[in-house]
Amino acid sequence: MFVVTIISGGPPDEQSSERNEDKVTEPIVVAKGLTKVYGEGDTAIAALNSVSFTINAGEFVVLLGPSGSGKTTLLNQIGALEPSTSGSLTVNGMEIAGMSDKERTEYRRSTVGFVFQFYNLIPTLTARENVALIAEITGDDPEARSDIVLNSVGLSDMRGHFPGEMSGGQQQRVAIARGIVKNPPLLLCDEPTGALDLETGRTILDLLQSTAEGENRTVFLVTHNSTIADMADRVIRLRDGRIVGDDVNGNPTPASELRW
Ligand SMILES: Nc1ncnc2c1ncn2[C@@H]1O[C@H](COP(=O)(O)OP(=O)(O)OP(=O)(O)O)[C@@H](O)[C@H]1O
Ligand SMILES: [Mg+2]
Questions:
Q1: Which residue among 119, 211, 224, 255 is least enclosed by CB atoms within 10 Å?
Q2: Tell me, what CATH number does 32's domain have?
Q3: Is residue 175 part of a domain?
Q4: Residue 234 domain-assigned?
Q5: Could you tell me if 64 and 237 are in contact, meaning their C-beta atoms sit under 8 angstroms apart?
Q6: Atom 27 of ligand 1, nearest CA residue
Q7: Quick one: three-class SS letters along 57-118?
Q8: Structural domain boundaries enclosing 42
């Protein structure tokens, strides 16, 4: 596990935002020359082309980039869902490529939460059962914990419904509830507000922002929406599989004040 030391009144870490100025952060994700090539020969596509960056524990990071720039590919790498082609990627000091199958499974269970771009809900399970399935992995009372999280995304009334009976935005909120119910130190979100109206989107972003602050959770959020970048501690920009920007935001906007 990563360690975060709070030194009250101590010097600000040079990469910390104003909000976190009394917090000394540790790197949680470190990529060096990370490359992912899909296919072979003439049809090979370098979805990630020698990408290097560092994310500190507790940061709210927004990953921006046009369609096809490699955003989902990068999330899948950090989530240990696909093998890399070359380069290095460590999370909490552990090299993902060097993990045994057992270690990788344990890493996905205990360290990362996923909110997938296309929800990936199980159609034959209700909203509550979809969330409880993930809650079961990490402890007791999965139904009760699922209900609390479904309530926090505004879906108490829908918990007995199946995904096919829900709107896209409601399904997306179930996917978000599933991502946060096991309280992961690292939450990976792929376009979590893509199907939501402004008000619901802001509520969800506010929830993600406050859990990042309050519980020192690291949030890595992919979006096309450059307005959302204003709430980030760090903004990474991808284009054609390469990083074209990596900026620290010293004064993040509260999610509730975003307009788009
Ligand atoms: N499983 C795969 N097999 C082959 N090519 C893939 C695969 N997954 C992604 N790619 C290719 O890799 C590139 C990056 O895709 P990726 O899904 O990471 O983009 P993205 O930035 O998430 O786009 P979007 O915003 O549309 O979701 C694209 O050219 C895509 O066609
Ligand atoms: Mg994508």
A1: 224
A2: 3.40.50.300
A3: no
A4: yes
A5: yes
A6: 67
A7: CCCEEEEECCCCCCHHHHHHHHCCCCCCCEEEEEECCEEHHHCCHHHHHHHHHHCEEEECCC
A8: 5-111+184-257
How many domains does one find in the chain?
Answer: 1
145 inside domain: no
Mean pLDDT over all residues of the chain? Answer: 88
Residue 171 near ligand 1, beta carbon < 6 Å: no
141 CA from centroid of ligand 2 (Å) = 33
At residue 238, φ and ψ (nearest 5 deg) are -115, 145
Structure pTM? 0.88
CB-ligand 1 contact for 100 (6 Å cutoff): no
Q: Average of pLDDT values for 54-66?
A: 95
By the CB criterion, residues less than 5 angstroms from ion ligand 2 are 72, 117
Q: Which ligand is nearest to the CA of 82?
A: 1
- Which residue has a Cα nearest atom 28 of ligand 1? 68
In a domain, 129, yes or no: no
Of all protein residues, the one whose alpha carbon is nearest to atom 4 of ligand 1 is 38
DSSP helix/strand/coil, 256:
helix
What would the pLDDT profile of 121-146 be if each residue is shown by its tens digit? 999 999 999 999 999 988 889 999 99
Distance of CA 67 from the midpoint of ligand 1 (Å): 8
73 lines ligand 1 (CB under 6 A): yes
**Region 192-197: what's the mean pLDDT?**
87
Q: What is the pLDDT of residues 90-119, one digit of tens each?
A: 999 999 999 999 999 999 999 999 998 888
Distance from residue 77's CA to the centre of ligand 1 (Å): 12
For residue 50, CA distances in Å to 47, 74, 138, 241 come to 10, 11, 35, 8
Q: In the prediction, which pLDDT does 23 show? A: 54
